[in-house]
Design brief:
The structure holds two protein chains of two kinds. By secondary structure, chain A is mostly helical. Helices cover 66% and strands 0% of the residues of chain A. Chain A is built from four helices and no strands. In chain A, helix 1 runs antiparallel to helix 2 and helix 2 runs antiparallel to helix 3. Chain A is elongated, with a radius of gyration of 20 Å. In chain A, 25% of the residues are buried. The longest helix of chain B is centred in the C-terminal third of the chain and has 33 residues. In chain B, helix 4 runs antiparallel to helix 7. Chain B has one domain. By secondary structure, chain B is mainly α. Chain B is built from eight helices and no strands. In chain B, 36% of the residues are buried. Classes of the chains: A mainly alpha, B mainly alpha. Chains A and B meet through helix 1 and helix 3 of A and helix 1, helix 2, helix 3, helix 4 and helix 6 of B.
Chain lengths: 119, 280
């Protein structure tokens, strides 16, 4: 099971984000929950490409080729994409939260939907 | 309702934990560990290559001339993907400014928060202002270094642009960008569009082969086409062909795009302060 320990961390992180996504009522906290899920997915990509004693896939001043091991480059490129897109979408979601607050004077999703007495 | 949410949580957790067992163990990804054996630099070199990542590691340095394999994946092998990503960023910045612009338009747009006598911001101590003078050029220089050396060392257009945008955040918290919203928007959006346009234009420049093909790599040292030694080397700035230019274009777009987001949010906060009468 120790081989899969990092995957368990990833699952816990994603699970934490999903719990917050389901049970939080504040819009800004929901945006943060989506960010947590996203960082879990980034960690998952990084774990997929990990290789013990592997260097970053950069040849500038790297060790000699005979004992050179490198981690996989494609997951890192995907993470690069994911971080920028995640930043952009969370900025957009926060903008929506700001506009919602300015129009309704509340961020509570139940009040926004007009539900007064939920369980 | 509660029961349904509990059930869905258990289902999600169960699926995730079952999915773990179908993955390869941590630290043993598919592919050949010793992919660099007998690398000769021939044209189609797929000996010892098992997976796509092995191909990138074995041939990336020869095909793109870039030491940084991640940069060669981002800007060369998957350059079209990066173009889509830059377009998403452009779209997000456009929609944020479109959504926020009606609520941040001020009657007193040219209100300046700086003291007319000293030129320093009024609502911030002198330490922050002087620290900004010290730090801002350094942050810009570090970001520019990350952008320019993207094909040699860790970094690239996105990271460098984000670092430079943190310089803009420093300018904002020390109240140096406080007035002239229209002019700021015009300058920033011009350079942001210019970055994306340069990226797509460079893509069309290589259309003789394919869109975004690296037509400058391994041609002549004068046009960033220096042929590098395979394997570990000390890094040459004039290698990698199109990659430094694409990196510069992306860096410009990310820097000014994130700056537009920051400036919009700052002006929104200031408008709220102004409505409450906190700005004299």
């Amino acid at each position: 099971m120790s081989d899969f320990f990092l995957y368990v961390t990833v699952v816990l992180l994603i699970f934490l984000g999903v719990v917050a996504l389901l049970y939080k009522r504040n819009l800004i906290k929901i945006v943060l929950a989506i960010n947590i899920v996203e960082s879990g997915i980034n960690l998952f990509f990084l774990t997929l490409g990990y290789r013990p004693e592997g260097t970053a896939p950069i040849f500038t001043l790297a060790p000699a080729l005979s004992d050179l091991k490198m981690v996989l480059p494609t997951p890192q490129a995907l993470i690069l994409t994911n971080i920028v897109i995640g930043f952009a979408t969370s900025a957009l979601m926060l903008t929506f939260a700001i506009l919602t607050y300015r129009n309704n004077r509340t961020l509570d999703i139940f009040k926004l939907r007009g539900v007064e007495d939920h369980e | 309702m509660k029961i349904a949410s509990f059930l869905s949580l258990f289902l999600i957790a169960g699926f995730l934990f079952v999915g773990i067992n179908r993955l390869h163990p941590v630290g043993q990804p598919l592919g050949n560990q010793n992919v660099f054996i007998d690398r000769t630099g021939e044209l189609t070199d797929i000996t010892y290559v098992d997976t796509m990542d092995d191909y990138y590691l074995r041939n990336g340095q020869r095909e793109t001339g870039s030491n940084n394999i991640v940069a060669s994946v981002v800007f060369d092998y998957r350059g079209f993907d990066t173009m889509g990503e830059a377009s998403v960023l452009f779209l997000v910045v456009t929609s944020i400014s479109m959504l926020l612009y009606p609520s941040i338009r001020l009657k007193r747009d040219t209100v300046d928060l700086r003291d007319p006598r000293t030129g320093f911001p009024m609502d911030m101590t002198r330490i922050v202002s002087n620290g900004t003078y010290l730090m801002f050029p350094l942050i810009l220089a570090f970001g520019a270094y990350l952008v320019i050396h993207g094909h040699l060392s860790p970094g690239g257009g996105f990271q460098g642009g984000a670092v430079m945008a943190s310089g803009t955040a420093l300018l904002i918290i020390s109240s140096y960008i406080t007035s002239h919203l229209h002019r700021t928007y015009n300058i920033f959006s011009f350079f942001e569009s210019l970055g994306l346009t340069i990226f797509i234009g460079l893509g069309f420049a290589g259309i003789g082969v394919t869109f975004l093909s690296n037509f400058l790599a391994n041609t002549s040292p004068a046009f960033f086409g220096r042929v590098i030694d395979l394997g570990p080397n000390s890094g040459y700035l004039n290698s990698a062909g199109l990659l430094p230019f694409l990196s510069l274009a992306i860096g410009m777009e990310v820097f000014f795009g994130l700056s537009i987001i920051l400036v919009s949010m700052f002006h929104l906060a200031r408008k709220e302060k102004d409505e409450k009468g906190m700005i004299k």
